[in-house]
Structure formats: structure tokens, C-alpha cells
Design a protein that fits this description.
The structure holds two protein chains of two kinds.
Chain A lengths: L1 H12 E3 L3 E6 L3 E6 L13 H6 L2 E5 L7 E2 L4 E4 L10 E4 L8 E4 L13 H11 L7 E5 L5 H14 L2 E4 L4 H6 L6 E3 L2 E5 L5 E7 L8 E5 L4 E5 L2 E2 L2 E2 L9 H12 L5 E4 L8 E3 L1 H15 L1
Parallel strand pairs in A: 8-9, 9-10, 10-11, 15-18
Antiparallel strand pairs in A: 2-3, 2-4, 5-6, 6-7, 7-8, 12-13, 13-14, 14-15, 16-17, 18-19
Chain B lengths: L15 H10 L6 H24 L5 H8 L4 H16 L8 H14 L4 H28 L3 H6 L1 E2 L3 E3 L5 H30 L2
Helix pairs in contact in B: 2-4, 4-8, 5-6, 6-8
The chains are: A alpha+beta, B mainly alpha.
Chain lengths: ~290, ~200
């Protein structure tokens, strides 16, 4: 099933401006299409059907971060810069008035290499035909700067509301941030008559106020820094707890997850798709964690 | 070798203390009011510090009582007054409930004969505080920031941070205004009951 599709994509991208495109399918099969830059056409994200069918997809497009439209209204912006920064996820037009929700906008400028992370994110969003000034709600998985620093600028510039768990609020406040909504375990209803429903899980371990966002309708879990591809978040930061993280992961493993969207592209793009693949990821983590 | 003889004028050499005493002897006597003020300045902070240390958990109630026993007469009265004033100050509507409980407990121990007055004040204050809290939570539940409402952000996971939200601050100020005189009356009554003979 997969091979003909990829062959079609490779044919389609002939002659484009992409230098390299890498598809990671499942755990082991990697198809690497790398040609002379002048020889390739088109960009993978212009083929939305790809995102649904390929297990994992990573595009290396020089300095431009790849974009994935996972669903009609869910966009993934995996970070591909050199410095540490998080993946961002955007729900387009979910709020009343067509405004968007972004989860973890990341750094404004990365600390070591001074990469303009927010600027790149805004350009990526614009490439999708969306306007960053329409971001109405910024949901922060936790209060570390590589996830939430840009929320300060989004709030200042676009009047976006910022949502975070109260236990991580002091850390965010020390950065100069202000929280408009506190999120805790429960339902988050968005849009006209609460048309989109997320379930928020308090998921401590990496930080005391870490949350994960579950979208039951599409079985998507946005996991922040709890779970990565074959690994977990660190617990050696202030307020971190390995015991709590293990409890959190146990709890999340019970959810029906089709797409696991991680906070960082560690080991893969940070996007794990396919129920079996997600389960396998939990199993692998469980084998060394529990 | 030539020796030079210095003719020192004979006079009494005074100590610094003698010089100071000489100077103050020229000053007018302190009035009784000034003496009382001096004592207040000297002993008032002692009571306040004692209460502060107790509330912060630096000293226990029995240690505080033991400390109080070192004073008697007027100094004891001054210390007790400032200590009580500090303890009664914990009875605040939005204050630390644990500190208020701690203060009421120690007041009963300092004045075992006036336990009824303390209990009565505690009961009244808890009732008022409960009413205030209930009313505030009711108002909080009704309050939804305009931006969140406009974008349709709701749900059981959401609690609005109303700290800097203008309409909420106005509402809460009105509520405070309505309840604060009653809280002040409880504090003053208790202070009066405990300091009266």
C-alpha cells in the first residue's frame, strides 16, 4: 500500500526546491529520497493524504520548519532548528469567531544559537494560509521556557489568552508571563456551543503542573514532555518526580490513542501515528520504566 | 639634651559619662505622657515580635507564655496590648485561616478566664468568614471574562484567573466593603474584652 504512494510522491516532488525528504514508516522501514536540489519539486505537506497514511513523516527543508496537516483543522509544526525548542500544534478555527488554539508555541528566540523560533513558527502558520494574529488561546503543557516563552509575545501582540496549570504558574510568572486561565483535570470545551471537546489530564512528573491534552473525537494525545518516541521527559528539573511521571504514563497508556503528538522531535519527528505504533511506544517505555 | 617644661593648667578631667550627665541635667524633666510614650516605644515592639515569632512557628505557645512571665507591671501591660493587637490582626476576611486559628488558640491560653470571649469571637469570625467565602465563590462562578466568553472557552477543566480582571476587582471590593466593618467590630470587641479588667 505504502510503496506506490511514496513512489508517486517522489515523482511529484521532482524538480522542487526541497533538498531532502525523509519518510519514516513504522519502526524500521525508512525510505529516504534525497536528490539534487534542482531535481525535486513540491513539498510533502502539499499532499495532505500523506499525513494520514504514513506512520511518521519528517521533512528537512533547509531552514523552513516542516508543516503537517494531521487533520482538517490540526496542524503540527515540528521544530527542526539546531537549538532546543518544542513542537507546536495548532487547531485552526476551533474557537468562536474562527480563532485558533495553539499548544506550546515554544521559544521566542532560542537561548544558545539565537534562532528566531517564534518568527519561523509565524511564517509556517502563514504558509498554511492562517493568520497568527487570530490565535485566541495558547495552551501550555507546562511552564518551561522552551514551551511557553513565546506565549508572552502572543498575548502581548495578539491579545491571546494563556492557559496553564496553576502548579506551573510561578515558574511562568518568573519569566514575565501572565496566565488567563488555569487548566486542571477535566473537560475543555471550545467554540460555539462547545463544539470541540478536549480532555485535560494533569500529568505531573516532568513538572508539577504538566498537563496533556486529549482529543477523543480523533483519538489524539498531545503529550508535551511526558512521552517521546521510545523515551520520556526528564525528571531532574525542579519539581520533577520520576515516580509521578511513571504514574502519569501508566494513566495515559489506558487511553485510546491513534496519534501521539510529543513535545520534541527526539528520535523521530515527535509524531507517532497508528494505534499499534503508539501502543508499542508505551510498551517500550514501560519495559524500562516500570 | 634640652628639657622643655610645659605648664599645664590645672583642671578636673571628666569622663564621657559625666559630660553626658552634665548636658542632660540642663534639659527639662520628661512629662508623664512622654515617659509613657518612651515605654510604649520600648516594650510595644517586644509584644509584636513575640506574636510574630509565634505565628511563624519560631516559638511555641508555652515558650511565648514563659517569655511573657519575664515582664510585670506596666511593661507587661504594654507587651500584652501589642501582642494581642498583632494576634487579633490575623482575623482578616482574606487572611490566613490557619494563622487566625493559631492566634485564637493562644489567646485562650494567655487569658484562661476569658475563654468565653475568645470562643464567641472565633465563632462570629468563622461565620462571617464563611459567608464572605461563599459569596465570593458564587460571584466567581458567575464571572466569566469577556474574552473567554466571546471565544467560547468553557468546561470543567477551566478556572479563570480573575486576579487583574477589572469587573471582578470591582465586585470583590464591594463585597469587602460590606463585610470588613463587621470583621473590624469582631476584632475590636475581642481586643476590648481581653484588655479590660
Amino acid at each position: 500500500m505504502l510503496a506506490p504512494r511514496i513512489a508517486a510522491i517522489i515523482r511529484a516532488i521532482r524538480g522542487a526546491e526541497i533538498f531532502r525528504i525523509v519518510f519514516l514508516c513504522g519502526r524500521s522501514s525508512i525510505i529516504h529520497a534525497s536528490k539534487d536540489p534542482t531535481d525535486l519539486t513540491a513539498i510533502a505537506f502539499q499532499f495532505p493524504e500523506l499525513s494520514h497514511n504514513l506512520c511518521n513523516l519528517r521533512c528537512c527543508l533547509g531552514r523552513i520548519p516542516p508543516v503537517m496537516r494531521l487533520f482538517e483543522n490540526l496542524y503540527a509544526y515540528p521544530w527542526t532548528g539546531n537549538d532546543n525548542n518544542c513542537n507546536s500544534y495548532l487547531f485552526a478555527g476551533t474557537l468562536t469567531g474562527g480563532r485558533h488554539v495553539i499548544i506550546d508555541p515554544g521559544h521566542t528566540v532560542t537561548p544558545a544559537y539565537r534562532e528566531p523560533a517564534l518568527d519561523r513558527l509565524i511564517r509556517s502558520i502563514a504558509r498554511d494560509g492562517l493568520n497568527s494574529s487570530d490565535i485566541g488561546l495558547v495552551v501550555l503543557s507546562h511552564g518551561h521556557p522552551d514551551h511557553c516563552e513565546a506565549a508572552i509575545a502572543l498575548r502581548d501582540n495578539y491579545g491571546s489568552l494563556v492557559a496553564l496549570h496553576s502548579a506551573d504558574e510561578p515558574a511562568y510568572r518568573r519569566m514575565g508571563g501572565k496566565v488567563d486561565l488555569f487548566l486542571d483535570e477535566g473537560e475543555l470545551k471550545l467554540g460555539p456551543a462547545g463544539s470541540t471537546v478536549f480532555r485535560i489530564y494533569h500529568s505531573p512528573g516532568h513538572t508539577p503542573g504538566h498537563i496533556t491534552v486529549y482529543w477523543p473525537e480523533r483519538r489524539v494525545l498531545i503529550a508535551g514532555d511526558c512521552i517521546f518516541y521510545r523515551s520520556t521527559g526528564r525528571t531532574d528539573f525542579p519539581g520533577g518526580s520520576a515516580r509521578e511521571l511513571a504514574e502519569t504514563i501508566k494513566k495515559l497508556a489506558d487511553l485510546e490513542i491513534e496519534h501521539l503528538l510529543c513535545g520534541h522531535a527526539y528520535g523521530n519527528s515527535g509524531i507517532i501515528s497508528g494505534e499499534e505504533e503508539v501502543r508499542e511506544n508505551f510498551r517500550t517505555i514501560g519495559s524500562f520504566l516500570f | 639634651m634640652q628639657v622643655r617644661i610645659i605648664n599645664v593648667k590645672e583642671e578636673v578631667i571628666k569622663s564621657a559619662f559625666e559630660l553626658a550627665m552634665e548636658r542632660i541635667s540642663g534639659l527639662p524633666e520628661l512629662t508623664p505622657q512622654e515617659i509613657a510614650e518612651q515605654k510604649e516605644k520600648q516594650f510595644g515592639p517586644v509584644g509584636e515580635a513575640m506574636a510574630g515569632k509565634y505565628l511563624r512557628g519560631v516559638i511555641r505557645a508555652d515558650e511565648m507564655l514563659h517569655e511573657l512571665e519575664r515582664y510585670e507591671g506596666e511593661p507587661e501591660q504594654i507587651i500584652l496590648r501589642s501582642l494581642l493587637s498583632r494576634l487579633c490582626g490575623t482575623l482578616q476576611l482574606e487572611g490566613d485561616a490557619a494563622a487566625a486559628d493559631k492566634a485564637l488558640t493562644v489567646m485562650s491560653r494567655i487569658f484562661p478566664t476569658k475563654q468565653t470571649a475568645v470562643e464567641k469571637a472565633a465563632e462570629k469570625f468563622r461565620a462571617l468568614s464563611g459567608r464572605f467565602e461563599q459569596e465570593r465563590e458564587k460571584k466567581r462562578a458567575e464571572m466569566k471574562p469577556e474574552a473567554a466568553e466571546r471565544m467560547g472557552i468553557t468546561g470543567s477543566a477551566v478556572r479563570y484567573n480573575l486576579d487583574d480582571y477589572g469587573p471582578w476587582m470591582e465586585e470583590i471590593a464591594k463585597l469587602r466593603q460590606a463585610c470588613e466593618p463587621q470583621a473590624a467590630a469582631i476584632r475590636n470587641r475581642l481586643l476590648g474584652d481581653l484588655t479590660s479588667e
